[in-house]
């Protein structure tokens, strides 16, 4: 998540990225879906959703796939290898066949797999490779899998399969002959997908924190490792977006007589946090690593060093840093793999994911599209709390960067949707923090905003996002030293956040409010080096330089500011900027005027 006061703008408008590459793709649809809809539309939609969420998507995650497109009853999935694609198809058909035998689902899938050259435009796949997969599936009977000859050649010696040649059926709008085969898994063969155990993931990401191992095995090291492990488990358990295995269940693995994959399977988790403790005299070294067992990758690792002289402070600092690092990385993996879906509408979910990716490109065109996607998400699912929260966050960017054509109406809309988000989910720290910031920034109600920040931190005290936004509100209120104290929490919890440039701006605002202009300039220059076209930084830097007596430097910054926003005027800006104390606003206005901004 991006922590910013207003929208960001990139140095230039980046065109869509178009690449050509080889891809393994699977196309699936429900046989006779239109007929089923005509007979029982609601039941059919519910069964199709259950099939996707309980069978297709868990197996997709297992085999490393991603949904490239979904429309009605048709799904296009991309996989990292042809073997993975075929295994996914076999697993899905077998699982659905079992449900049909049990009488719990009358739906029958047709699945086609192809490997071919595709055109990738910002993650959207096009070209003959995709078209062939969507055409050859028509040769499949309900419950069958069909593949192209290219797929057959890839997997015939790698998987226990039997192929039946269907010849070269005519394919609409495909100007070449494509040989097609049906696929049948050899029952009882080694590697049978039904016989292979795999993890069934909960709706929330599941994580186990294993007891931190000791390098030398001494009692002191064991004590330190146990303390840190307990702190991490306790902290993670407060985060309602994660499902954390209790200490009593993980403690039996302290001797590590099993590998991590087996431990994860027994605990039924996807993520494992592993670590070690080493002591040399009064020095302690802690190594921690977060592993995605399904993806078989390390998604985060960090080393910490400290002293036993202040053990509790060191233990709290390490636990806090690990806690703040785990949640965003798990969320990133879950988002990428469609594993954390706070809505029943897959279309709405995809709208939010796409909007999030566009927000962070910092271009006007992409921001406009992101807004349209978020508006569509809340239309598709009016109960989707996170969609409302992100829409409020988007409006914050849109207005602050000067892109809004009707700022007053958009401010009212931002207040409305951010409040709606917390009405729908009062236990989402992100939604609470967004609502607090919008209430402070646009609603000019910083006192109530602070209550919302405290509520967010009560739910997740390791939320750097909530600490940082609450620091900004304190700066607005003329309480700069308290703001700077809160920013220390941000940097302690998340020292390597690539978006820390925003919190450097918050520090600059706090120092400006305190009248410490040289310190403000230091923070703001640091932020400008990271993001040279962020207007919130440039206007505060210009005012700080002018207030410090460096009018030449201030005027140079104003030239950069006006090149980005030519219509920027002091009177308009001061009329809405939420500094509470009149003296702070006056000094800000005087600095901008001295820097050469028109009144």
From TrEMBL:
One of its GO terms (molecular function) is adenylate cyclase activity. One of its GO terms (biological process) is cAMP biosynthetic process. SUPFAM superfamilies: Nucleotide cyclase (SSF55073), TPR-like (SSF48452). InterPro entries: A/G_cyclase, Adenylyl/Guanylyl_Cyclase_3/4, Nucleotide_cyclase, TPR-like_helical_dom_sf, TPR_rpt. Pfam families: TPR_16 (PF13432). It comes from the Bacteria. This is Guanylate cyclase domain-containing protein. It comes from Bradyrhizobium valentinum. The lineage of its organism: Bacteria, Pseudomonadati, Pseudomonadota, Alphaproteobacteria, Hyphomicrobiales.
């Amino acid at each position: 998540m991006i922590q910013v006061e207003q929208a960001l703008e990139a140095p230039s408008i980046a065109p869509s990225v178009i690449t050509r590459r080889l891809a393994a793709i699977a196309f699936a649809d429900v046989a006779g879906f239109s007929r089923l809809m005509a007979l029982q539309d609601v039941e059919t939609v519910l069964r199709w959703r259950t099939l996707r969420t309980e069978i297709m998507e868990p197996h997709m995650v297992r085999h490393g796939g991603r949904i490239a497109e979904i429309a009605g009853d048709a799904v296009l999935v991309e996989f990292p290898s042809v073997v993975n694609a075929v295994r996914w198809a076999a697993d899905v058909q077998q699982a659905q066949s079992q449900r049909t035998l049990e009488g719990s689902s009358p739906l029958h899938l047709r699945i086609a797999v192809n490997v071919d050259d595709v055109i990738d435009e910002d993650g959207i796949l096009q070209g003959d490779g995709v078209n062939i997969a969507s055409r050859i599936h028509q040769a499949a009977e309900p419950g069958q899998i069909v593949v192209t000859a290219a797929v057959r050649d890839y997997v015939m010696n790698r998987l226990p399969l039997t192929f039946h040649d269907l010849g070269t059926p005519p394919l609409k709008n495909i100007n070449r002959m494509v040989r097609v085969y049906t696929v049948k898994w050899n029952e009882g063969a080694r590697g049978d997908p039904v016989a292979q155990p795999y993890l069934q993931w909960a709706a929330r990401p599941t994580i186990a924190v294993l007891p931190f191992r000791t390098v030398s095995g001494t009692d002191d090291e064991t004590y330190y490792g146990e303390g840190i492990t307990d702190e991490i488990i306790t902290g993670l358990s407060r985060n309602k977006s994660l499902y954390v295995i209790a200490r009593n269940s993980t403690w039996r693995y302290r001797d590590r007589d099993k590998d991590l994959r087996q431990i994860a399977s027994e605990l039924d988790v996807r993520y494992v946090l592993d670590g070690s403790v080493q002591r040399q005299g009064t020095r302690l070294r802690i190594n921690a690593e977060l592993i995605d067992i399904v993806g078989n990758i390390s998604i985060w690792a960090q080393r910490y060093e400290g002293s036993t002289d202040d053990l509790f402070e060191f233990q709290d600092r390490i636990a806090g840093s690990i806690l703040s690092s785990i949640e965003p990385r798990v969320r990133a993996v879950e988002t990428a793999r469609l594993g954390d879906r706070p809505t029943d509408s897959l279309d709405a979910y995809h709208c939010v994911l796409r909007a999030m990716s566009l927000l962070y490109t910092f271009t006007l065109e992409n921001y406009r599209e992101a807004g349209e996607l978020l508006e569509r998400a809340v239309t598709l699912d009016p109960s989707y709390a996170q969609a409302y929260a992100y829409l409020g966050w988007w409006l914050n960017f849109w207005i602050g960067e000067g892109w809004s054509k009707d700022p007053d109406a958009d401010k009212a809309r931002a207040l409305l949707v951010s409040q709606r988000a917390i009405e729908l989910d009062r236990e989402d720290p992100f939604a609470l923090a967004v609502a607090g910031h919008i209430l402070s920034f646009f609603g000019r109600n910083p006192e109530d905003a602070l209550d919302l920040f405290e509520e967010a931190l009560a739910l997740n005290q390791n939320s750097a996002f909530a600490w940082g936004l609450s620091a900004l509100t304190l700066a607005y209120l003329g309480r700069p030293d308290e703001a700077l104290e809160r920013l220390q929490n941000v940097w302690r919890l998340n020292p390597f956040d690539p978006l820390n440039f925003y919190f450097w701006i918050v520090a600059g605002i706090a120092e400006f409010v305190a009248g410490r202009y040289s310190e403000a300039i230091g923070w703001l220059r640091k932020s400008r080096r990271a993001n040279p076209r962020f207007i919130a930084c440039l206007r505060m830097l210009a005012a700080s330089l002018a207030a410090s007596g460096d009018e030449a430097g201030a005027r140079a910054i104003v030239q950069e500011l006006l090149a980005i926003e030519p219509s920027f005027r002091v009177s308009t800006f001061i009329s809405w900027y939420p500094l509470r104390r009149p003296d702070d606003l006056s000094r800000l206005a005087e600095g901008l005027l001295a820097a050469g901004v028109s009144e």
